[in-house]
Amino acid sequence: MSLELAAPRQSAPSVADDGVWLECIACSEQFAPFDDIRYTCDDCDGLLEVRYADPPTWDDFEGRGVWRYSAALPFAEGVTLPEGDTPLHDVPRLEEDIGVDRLRIKHEGMNPTGSFKDRGMTVGVRVAKELGVDRLACASTGNTSAALAAYGARGGMETLVLLPAGKVAAGKIAQASLHDARILEVDGNFDSCLDIVQDLAARGEAYLLNSLNPFRLEGQKTIGLEIMEQFRDEEGDYPDRIVLPVGNAGNTSALYKCFRELVQSGALAESDVPKLTGVQAEGAAPMVEAVEAGNDEVRRWESVETRATAIRIGNPVNAPKALPGIRNTGGTAVAVSDERITDAQRALAGEGVGVEPASAASVAGLRKLREQGRIAADEQVVCLTTGHLLKDPDAAFEAGDDPEPVPNDTDAVLAHLADD
Ligand SMILES: N[C@@H](CCOP(=O)(O)O)C(=O)O
Questions:
Q1: Contact 309 CB / ligand 1 (< 6 Å)
Q2: Among 66, 67, 224, 315, which residue carries the largest CB count within 10 Å?
Q3: N6-(pyridoxal phosphate)lysine is carried by which residues (predicted)?
Q4: Weakest mean pLDDT among 2-11, 217-226, 343-352
């Protein structure tokens, strides 16, 4: 395994602000973090990463939630609801059924708006305030828009969200609507919405808060920090593998960055870095295609379809960060059918863990990789579930059993129950 950490700690370049700067992952050009609005490199258009002169160790963390990890973030506090500190569930029946040594579910659906996006928004909206912007915007399959609307409202800022018409789950639109985002439904898929939001941002019409924004990923990094601390608190060791759904590939990128910084600070041995394993739906699997073919670039899929609407994405913008994350940690990627996703959603629900379809993709992927013998029985695994069951009530109704009508009478109810 190589985390490509050849460079030890970097000393802060002259552009740094309090030991923080932006750096292009393609050409290494460095930029001041808050003097101007930029999402990609001015020179080569490569993706930007937030860099720190002094990456933190475990002792630097105190408090709860995302801001426990402020030593790993560009600010000490943000626009908060608050977020993070989500449960790491044990799921004994599922663990035995799938056949791994230890299985835990990191349920990000327990964040304030019901998805991990809140972790990114608490940081992203704080940065927006620093930059003095007044309109925030995102493209979304639903969860990003819900989080942006809520955190924008919290910060007293105007929000604009572009959604693929007819392809966003009801709960998510309801959230964006009630939190007073201006909602534009685009006759196209998520990738087209993101193209438009990028254009709007380039024209200075809005501040983009999708995961192309490097500060969003800083907040999402705390998922990795929390998993490592919670897992270690149980039995003193770290997970061998983290399995996660892949849409725009922000979490894969953020977790990889989290582990690189921990290794860099000496808080984590390179041999203890979990293998990042991405799961996509078969109908939207450009990252899996690239991993399987050994390609360095991800081909944009123009046509995508899956019941797991949160990962219905054909052009993952963070692919140049996420592909090395999967490869350099010794992980892999796998595509699963919608049927497998629904089965996994039911299995999680049977353990009391309610998730939306895209979230269940992680468990579906783990099961498939075990069946194929690509994951060993002695592995300790964390599956990330990204959004709450109530995000997509229609999918939950379809996966669950129908209510049974009964008369308004106790004896009739007992007769009905005995009838089974
Ligand atoms: N599933 C996402 C798609 C956008 O991803 P982002 O992390 O780049 O904002 C959503 O909820 O909209």
A1: no
A2: 66
A3: 117
A4: 2-11
User: Does the global pTM surpass 0.80?
Assistant: yes
Residue 197 has pLDDT above 90, yes or no: yes
Q: Looking at the predicted structure, is the pLDDT value of residue 116 above 90?
A: yes
Q: Which ipTM score applies to this complex?
A: 0.99
Which tokens belong to 104? 């835990």
Q: How far is the C-alpha of 299 from the C-alpha of 116, rounded, in Å?
A: 26
Mutate to test the pocket of ligand 1, among 108, 183, 198, 248 (most ligand atoms within 8 A of CB): 248
Q: Is 310 in the pocket of ligand 1 (CB under 6 A)?
A: yes
Ligand 1 atom 1: residue of nearest CA:
310
Domains present along the chain, CATH in parentheses:
88-114+220-399 (3.40.50.1100), 117-208 (3.40.50.1100)
* C-alpha to C-alpha distance for 278 and 87, rounded to whole angstroms: 21
Q: DSSP readout, 246-305? A: -SSSHHHHHHHHHHHHHHHHTSS-GGGPPEEEEEEETTS-HHHHHHHHT-SSPPPPS---
